Amino acid sequence: MQIHFKNQQGSDRLLDLTSPKIMGILNFTPDSFSDSGKFFTLDKALYQVEKMLNDGANIIDIGGESTRPNAPIVDLADELERVVPLVEAVRQRFDCLISVDSSKAEVFRQAAKVGADILNDIRALQEPNALETAAQLGLPVCLMHMQGTPQNMQQNPEYDDVVEEVADFLNQRIFACLTAGIPKEHIILDVGFGFGKTVQHNYQLLKHINAFVQSGYPVLAGLSRKSMIGNVLNKPVEQRTIGSVAGALLAVQNGAKIVRVHDVAETADALKIWQAMAECE
Ligand code: 7PJ
Questions:
Q1: Cα 103 to ligand 1 centre (Å)
Q2: CB-neighbour burial class of residue 267 (10 A; exposed 0-12, middle 13-18, buried 19+)
């Protein structure tokens, strides 16, 4: 399994998913919950990118909208100002895959123009023009499930069968993408840990992530430092690294192909151990 990336600048990159890959998170927001705005200058952000790449990240995920529960809504101008110069700077300096964590068509368009390779959308291309823009840009997309909005999603998440309902939603979005002209080789799925889910829902999805893997689409898992880790450990965000690595490893063991993480070096070590086991007879 591999994804072929041809971005708007014409560069060709292949992501081989026969072994699991790491997406390193760079949240370029002043209020990002786990980094507390630590990387909110271009220099610091680039330093962090370099470190994540040296530590083994294959993709750098750049977002300008904080989507933690109850986060304030970010307007388009602010998001563009945070994301576009950073994508451009990373593209100029590093030969890596860049995903843009956004839901807005205009952010997709401008980020693609300066070299983004992947559109990572927690709203699964449901915002105005997002689907059409993604199809036009010709970039791979990550479709994530969320119940509600970041403002209300953790108030009272409810499902009869969380696995079935998330699968139904993702299937509908896959259909919408295919209909809009996005090829099936360009679709990545994500169950959306923490997005309108109780801790129990999150663990049900982790346990049954293979149900999504069986669709044949690559599955991305993002549980790094989230409350599903913190609640079980009863630890604050800065003490969730080992729990997050354990969660990433379980996701990979159950078939996830990409893990979205803050702690790249630690995750890379864990995945090397997994790989050593996976490769032997
Ligand atoms: C996710 C994301 C995730 C994908 C965020 C955080 C909140 N994109 N963006 N999957 N989470 N695809 O990192 O805690 O789980 S922002």
A1: 12
A2: buried
